[in-house]
Each structure stands twice: as C-alpha cells, then as structure tokens.
Design goal:
Number of strands: 19
Distance between the termini: 49 Å
Structural class: mainly beta
Mean pLDDT: 85
Number of helices: 3
Low-confidence stretches: 1-25
Number of domains: 2
Amino acid sequence: MSTPTRALWLGVAASLAVAGSAVGQSYQLVTSGSCPGEMIVTVASASPGGSVALLLGQAGGRQTIPVGPCAGTEVELGAPQIGAWVIADTDGGFATTLALPDSECGRLLVALDEQTCETTPPVPLVTGVPVPVAVTGRRKIEEPGDDGDVRRGRVSPRPRFTDRGDGTVEDHLTGLLWLREAGCLGTGDWSTALAAPTQLEDGLCGLTDGSRAGDWRLPNVRELASLIDYGEENPSLPDGHPFVGLPAPVYYWSSTTVSLVAPQAWGVRYTVGHIDTLFRDTERWAWAVRDP
C-alpha cells in the first residue's frame, strides 16, 4: 500500500485511501458520489508506485503543461490546475475521497501519470446524487434470472399513491402530483397537448387545489414511464391506483421530442407499457403533472 505525498484540493482537505486496481486494465479514471460533497476518485493501471497528478479544468479547452516532469504534454482542459498528487500502489491503482465545494461542480477532472505523461479522458464532476431505478413491477417468472425472478430496483412505497381529494394524486415514488382525471384534457396533436396542461387551474377537470394557469405541464417521457407497472395490464398501472377516466388503449403524449427523427415525440401507452415514437401531427391524449 502506498501513501500520498501531497493532497490539496484547492484549499479543501481531501481524505485519502489507497486501493488496488485490476491488472491489465487501460489507464482510466472513474468517479462516484456527489458534487458538492464527497466524491470517490478511482484510477486504474497507472505506473506502479508512481506519482499521479489530478488536474482540474474547464471544458472545451486544450493546454500544454509548461513545467514539471510532463512539460510539453497537452491536456484536454481549459486553465488546468493541480488538485492533488497521489502515489499509486504496486498495481498502479488508488482510490481517493475528495470533499468538493459547490464551486467545483461542472468542471472536468483528468489524471496525469507523471512517469509516462499519459492522461485519462476528462471526467465531469457532476452535480447531483445517484437516483435509484425503480422496480418494474414484473412478478411472473419465465426463466431463472429474468426480471420477474430477480426483481431488482427501488421498491415502490406503500401506498404508492394518495388521492388528495382535490383532483390531484400524489405519487410517493417520485413526489410528483398528477391530474386524477386522466382523460379530461382529451386529444390533440403534440403542440396542442403541450399547451393544454398549462391552461389548467382550480375549477377545471375536478381540481379544487388552488392551482393556477401555468402550474401544470405535459409530463416528459420518463415521468410518464415512471407510472408503468409491468406486472399489470389494461392499464399497466400499479394495482389500486386512484386515477379515473383513463381511456382504453391509447397513447399519451410526452413533452420529450425525438432527437434523430423530426418531427416526432415520445409517447406512452398504458396497455402493457408501450413506449414509442409518434409523429407530432397525429392525435393522441394529454395528461398533466405538476411539481409538489
């Protein structure tokens, strides 16, 4: 096990712990955790026992290192700064836990092997924390190891939904508020569906929640898909859901457009949980969601 020679992260103390790496991997840097907060930086296949510099910089730039053992090496960073030096272990790996302030989030991190002057691809210091993926709801086992057998993912809260009695339904998995009357907004092309929820307010579609025009919006495709329970059919919504007026098999528009094929947008059909691309000039249903 090696020990760090210097550890300084722009004035923020960094707690360092060294771990082994798998022999034969390409030189790489991986991060996990959150920014701001603690982030674990792991490097594999550096020079065994060698010094590694962690460089921090802006995206969209390239700069040549002016001094030191790797003078003349070009790095894919704008205005790079040295964040920390660490000595790799005998397998060429280490793991470092860094305490990152908010000011560093969104910048890029590169590991520079000071023996070979090789650099890892830049890795962004991403703002946020990991979000667990929910279970699909599939319970039927058709083959050992399939989803119905393994059932991995974040288990839905019980109850999953609460009918608030004011025309809204609270989803305890996502925290979102949904319009209880799922068919109230009717059908239209994508542009019509995009605009329809923004006109919702107290007194419309059974709402007595005090909401005003502009509070509601068309859900994105992941929000629509979050309602799917793949253990249910017609509709493929969690058992005991409180929604009413859900039309039989139809697609609901999402606010998410298709990146490669225009003019299309994503839609969701709650029969068995279809998610598909739809031409925006076709008539589909609109639903409404709002943030809590």
